[in-house]
Amino acid sequence: MHRIIRNVRVMDPSDGFDAVTDLAISAGKITIRGAVAEDFRAEEILDGTGLVACPGLIESSLQAHSPGHGRDGDLASELQAAVAGGVTQVVLRPDTQPVADTPAILQEQQLLAEKLALARVQASAALTTGLQGQALSEMTALLDAGARVFSQAKQPIRSAALLRLALSYAADLGLPVMLHPEDSELAAHGVMNESGLSIRLGLPGRTAVAEQVGIQRDIAIAALSGCPLFFPHLSTGAAIAAVKAARQRGEKVHCGVSIHHLLLSEQDVGFFNVHAKLLPPLRSLAERDALRRAVADGDVTAISSDHSPWGIDRESMTFIQAPFGISAVEWLLPLTLRLVDDGLLSLMAALQLLSTGPAQALGLPAPSLQVGSVADLCLFDPEAVFTVNPASGASRGRNLPYAQWDLRGRVRYTLVDGRVVFRA
């Protein structure tokens, strides 16, 4: 199918291109980036006046509960939410039910994703059987079944020897590993940041030192094998500094931050707000500001929504009982534009952290709007202001602390392989 997008501001972090022009798409690829002749035949012409076209966003941590029990969402509902947010590619977390530690589960996910034909789905396979950290998964078989990355989801591996073995195998197979860096014994069973606030609320605290100790260990072990590492959701400035130092030594390590840790703090837990329960937990205002400085300084490769939906039946749970996570992939772009409004990032830098940055960290082909590139793109209105209504979202999860926030930036179209998979 031939499609033209006319008079749109094209912003491409892959080469820094920024101009109001046209895009032509044929056979799923971008064929023209520039003025398109009036006699160019197309089945559809989209008016891009006032819109920005950028490479499709990449969500590096999406819990879709497929396979799972369905009450918290499934691949269909969560991919609908993703494309509504301009996301064209997602990396599924392996902590499904059952865990994605066998070829059969990865194949099931891929077949369902192909049938849905929404966002591209990259499978992350469990690094250890059942994510228990006791024995390695069948890593070669998982690679053959389509795994693009190995992951422990939110479970650290306690055994340093097993982690070294796992990273050595991953390095031999040529796949990156996503890790949740945390010392399990220091973290204990904390449900929020350890501080004076957690003491006043009577909630078990999770110390920031657990992350700082864990990341130093994981980086040191990875250096023994040269395995590429990606820490997708760090919560402390010290952890990001450790990644920066490792990169300066030439080690293959990247880090990301969830948008929630850049906009919120432990204060948002308020009076036991279960929608502000995250892993790693929201930290102090000082840590939030340290993360924001790291983003502004270019020390962070990716921003994600760390999408973790859970159903309405969890609303009655206490803060300790409630699961960790926020459902926000549909609002990732406008939430990130808050950082632009605050003067922390340029718009181009923000788009880079949502598209080419995650691709670099995960070893995926960089999304681009250059001629010849696959036509995965997001078109959004950067000036459209709206009020967040969780009930209006496509996700089955309603667990987000942004209800009634006024945000800027509405996704109007999402294209995957040149097909319009979402239009507002």
UniProtKB/TrEMBL annotation:
CDD domains recorded: DHOase_IIa (cd01317)
SUPFAM superfamilies: Composite domain of metallo-dependent hydrolases (SSF51338), Metallo-dependent hydrolases (SSF51556)
Keyword Isomerase: no
The keyword Transmembrane is annotated on this UniProt entry: no
Source superkingdom: Bacteria
Domain Amidohydrolase-related: 140-421
Keyword terms: Pyrimidine biosynthesis
Protein name: Dihydroorotase
Organism: Acidithiobacillus concretivorus
Lineage, broadest ranks: Bacteria, Pseudomonadati, Pseudomonadota, Acidithiobacillia, Acidithiobacillales
